[in-house]
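User: structure tokens for this one?
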Amino acid sequence: MMNEKLRCIVIDDEPIGKELIVNFVKTIPFLELQASYEDPIEALMYLQSNEVDIIFSDIEMPKINGIDLIRTLTKQPSIIFITAHRDFALEGFENGVVDYLVKPVAYNRFLKAVNRAKERIQASSKTQAEPKENNFSVDRIFIKVSGKLVKLILEDILYVEALGDYLKIVTDTESYTTLATLKSMEDILILPKFFRVQRSFIVKLTAIKSVSGNVIELNNGKAITIASTKKDELFNLLGI
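Assistant:
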């Protein structure tokens, strides 16, 4: 691996964003671009029959988001995620995720991420580590609150509420307000632990204390209306 080029692909449903990363890749002598895709499903089909060393992937995409796409892979390459949301940062970058780049991506920041991936791949090659099963998970994020980044353990979240351009994130002990979209949180807070019960709310399923008609009550006493289109799916998840 030390003297071989690192095979990579680029996945981004936005043509401009995809071409930027493709052009960056072409400037790095030790990278070899195998393919680039705007359709994540096409990328997934390629990955099912081709091995790569690095994946550059957008997170928010139609059909399947970047996080879910990575979860489907049986062999985990190095992952560099790219996103338009500044207010979320994955902590730890476990199980192959080596960096998290915010659009518009600066070249020097891209180069730093690539070098980090190269070092990890070389270290793995030297130690002849056994391939690990894909256990990709995100268990915490950082959110921007009053000008500072605050660590938030996802398991602690009871519910998330959309308030215009802001989100209210409520845990057992705290309540935070941050500038972000509910869609960006929905990509992180996924089944089987979390469910979007209506347009403005995502709830933790184990935090639901009771259900009465179209209203759920959480452990902290918060009452939330269930959208009619979500009711059957929620009830199935709750086993009722």
